[in-house]
Design brief:
Dehydroquinate synthase-like, alpha domain; 9 strands; three-stranded mixed beta sheet; Rossmann fold; 2 domains; six-stranded parallel beta sheet; single chain; 388 residues; alpha/beta
Length: 388
């Protein structure tokens, strides 16, 4: 890997990571570590019904003061407000999110409202907060979003059918508990698509040329290697706790990577398809990823050659362009092996919505960091039509 001679960067990695089988039992100790005593859980019905919240409650003991369990697939402003009201009434001094990206993102929003008050709309954008927010322990039950280690979160404006992006150093979870037991019951398709979300984070982190730097590159590189080996094992055998743990580590590494070097066109489109069509984020990423890589290839072949190397598909004597093509094919092969849908038309996206989605995606943050500059909706529409 080569970097400009005048390379300068800031690398951030703020979250305390607790990893291991049954480490969820230590959540009470982590609350104590944060010098808190009243923990409020934010989760969803599915996670609760699976018995996972019970493990967390047991670990919290008398530190548990209440719970909000109404997080939907795409959290909204009214959801965050309801959860914040309940947490405030319970006297919570810290939050414990248990679930996927929506639960963790909801907790990030609640953390702001508990500390700052007001309306969450007031804080949309990047780096607007001026003080640390309510302490937050994230316990992911999927291995893909990386939200447990990043400063990003997304909340859907249900009235306008649009997702609002947030990013601030002060809302990064203080602690992430990565317990493989908490992901072993995840169904094969959800395991596959959330895992592809992590792979997308890692690949986009590498291809964001303007923000490339050694630390995030190595995090992304390591994440790709782990995902290629262990994600199929997780899909084939959900009870393989070693594979589940390695995928959790990969997801966190990919989160740290893109948190520092950003994502691009895949996420820009996926956020819009999630808002307009209800396509789950990881599934949208999975379908779009090889098409976006193909679109960007002539701008950053050496970066995709690095991806190919991490995937184990770069052979001796290959040019960067050949290695990049091999990486794209490896992404397709992986999704086919896991029986993930291959086309947007297969997941409920209508052809008529594509122009509107392409136009809306131009206003998303990830577009800024895409290696190939996006100037007009027609460029996005080309990629979407290829994925359709």
């Amino acid at each position: 890997m080569a970097y400009d001679q005048d390379l300068a960067f800031i690398y951030r990695n703020y979250t305390r990571i607790v990893f291991g089988i049954n480490t969820v039992n230590d959540v009470g100790s982590e609350v104590d570590y944060l010098k808190c005593s009243k923990a409020f859980i934010i989760t969803d019905k599915g996670v609760k019904e699976a018995g996972l919240v019970e493990k967390v409650q047991k670990g919290l003991g008398n530190r548990f003061v209440g719970m909000f369990d109404e997080c939907p697939q795409d959290s909204g402003f009214h959801i965050v407000s309801q959860a914040a009201e309940m947490a405030r009434a319970a006297g919570a001094d810290c939050l414990v999110s248990v679930g996927g990206g929506s639960c963790i993102d909801t907790a990030k929003g609640v953390a702001i409202l508990l500390k700052e008050g007001g309306d969450l709309h007031d804080y949309s954008g990047y780096q607007l907060l001026t003080q640390p927010q309510t302490p937050h322990i994230a316990i992911p039950t999927t291995a893909g979003t990386g939200s447990e280690v990043t400063y990003f979160f997304v909340i859907k404006d249900w009235d306008r059918n649009f997702k609002i992006e947030y990013g601030d150093d002060y809302i990064i979870p203080n602690t992430a508990i990565l317990d493989p037991v908490m992901t072993q019951g995840l169904p094969p398709m959800l395991t596959a698509t959330t895992g592809m979300d992590a792979l997308t984070h890692a690949i986009e982190a590498i291809h964001c040329v303007e923000h490339a730097e050694p630390f995030s590159d190595m995090m992304a590189y390591g994440a790709i290697r782990l995902i290629m080996e262990f994600l199929p094992r997780c899909v084939e055998n959900g009870g393989d706790l070693f594979a589940r743990g390695q995928q959790q580590i990969a997801a966190a590494m990919a989160g740290i990577a893109f948190f520092n070097s950003m994502v691009g066109l895949v996420h820009g489109i996926a956020h819009i398809l999630g808002a307009l069509c209800g396509v789950p984020h990881g599934l949208a990423n999975s379908i779009l990823l090889p098409h976006v890589m193909k679109y960007n290839l002539d701008e950053c072949p050496e970066r995709y050659a690095l991806v190919a190397e991490a995937m184990g598909v770069k052979e001796k004597g290959m040019s960067d362009e050949e290695a990049a093509e091999a990486a794209i094919e490896a992404v397709r092969d992986l999704t086919k092996r896991m029986n993930v849908p291959q086309r947007l038309r297969d997941v409920g996206v209508s052809e008529e919505i594509l122009p509107e989605a392409a136009d809306a995606s131009l206003g998303t943050g990830p577009m800024i960091a895409n290696p190939k500059m996006i100037y007009e909706a027609e460029q996005v529409l080309e990629v979407m039509r290829n994925a359709y």
